[in-house]
Amino acid sequence: ADGEPLHDEL
Amino acid sequence: MNIFRLAGDMSHLVAILILLLKIWRSRSCAGISGKSQVLFALVFTTRYLDLFTSFISAYNTVMKVVFLALSYATVYLIYMRFRNSYDSENDTFRVEFLLVPVIGLSFLENYSFTPMEILWTFSIFLESVAIMPQLFMITKTGEAESITNHYLFFLGLYRALYIVNWVWRYHTEGFFDQIAVVSGVVQTIFYCDFFYLYVTRVLRGRGKMSLP
To answer: Measured between beta carbons, which residues in chain B are less than 8 angstroms from residue A1?
Structure first.
């Protein structure tokens, strides 16, 4: 969703 | 993905496997804090809810599933299969003293006030303190088996490598995740005293070591 960061780390 | 991040993830995996195999082979979880392991299972559970909402990469998905499965397997071995060897009398850290402030902070400081983001933030904050019952237990009993120390060493190495990864990502892609970085640095500081003792005592052949 917009404004929510994508957490690409574990 | 960079080499530091990959090496960090691999150290994390090695740490978890060392612990699991130690318990499995010795048929005993003596000296292991079940509370820390439950907290780590909770960390993975609340952080990896995005398995259901967003796909990042095959690597990412596989590692998340592996971490979840291994953490639950560890908790199962400690509290079910080898519960007779569980040293509950020395695993007396009051977990609520960690959970209450961590829950409070994750509501106050997050990237977005949504259930998923609050749970992600909770998992980041909780991970930074989840090892405290284990360190408390070692302090209480006065010593830890060297295999437990190897476990803690690889956990600490994973945290240190993640910091290098963040420095790298900041310079190469302008990436800066304030919540992860601040709590990651705090978490790594917890391991510094342990690192020093590990290098000076365990690696010099005494096998066992004690924390002051």
So the answer is: 114
